[in-house]
Amino acid sequence: MGRLTGKTAIVTGGSRGIGRAIVERLARDGAAVVVAYASNREQASAAVRAVESAGGKAIAVQADVTRAEDVRRLFEETGQRFGISDIVVANAGTLVNKPLVEATVEDFERGFAVNTRGTFLTFAEAARRVPDGGRIIGFSSSLVRLGRPGFGLYTASKAAVEQFVTILAKELGPRGVTVNAVAPGPTDTEMLGEASRRLAPQITPLGRIGRPDDIADVVAFLASDEARWITGQVIGANGGVA
What we know:
Blueprint: E1 8-12, H1 17-28, E2 32-37, H2 41-53, E3 58-62, H3 68-82, E4 87-89, H4 105-129, E5 135-139, H5 143-146, H6 152-172, E6 178-184, H7 194-203, H8 212-223, E7 234-237
Parallel strand pairs: 1-2, 1-4, 2-3, 4-5, 5-6, 6-7
């Protein structure tokens, strides 16, 4: 039996990239997993098939995390299929890479809608629904520490997530619910630009780009009982780059 056997996990942005790796890792650890996706049903279905082919349990649920009604429905459909949501991973995000002087209001709205509002709505619904001893995990970025030019809007939207983690951990601590975030460094996904892909191995002490499973392993730890004494933390999973 896996260490998450009998648990149910929701993973937003679970159809590709880091989210897909998290889905497959939590399922390997025994959790029934809900793959929440915004629009690409084919990718979400592929994630579900991958879990099922390995002997796990998963379903796909369409949900736009920027819409409160979608987030509520995500949790309701999870409850109807699997029961209580023990683990909630707010992974959905979008990248805005543009100098502030060139950024538009539309860029601002897009970045903060998904990264900040989406995490807020997911965290708030999770706080209402996870049982005592549950796990809530969000996503920041190592760019918050690095402060690279061109990522002002992105890092600001992720810095807000870190504050959500700090405060919500204190609010839910009396119930034994842990709230943490993972801050990846350059990781081999569609979001990684070519310039970062070339530069990362040179500036990362471990000498390579991160893999989605590097991040998924950290999430799996935070979701487990072994991480019961860790809360309110932002864990850098970045090969030492920040």
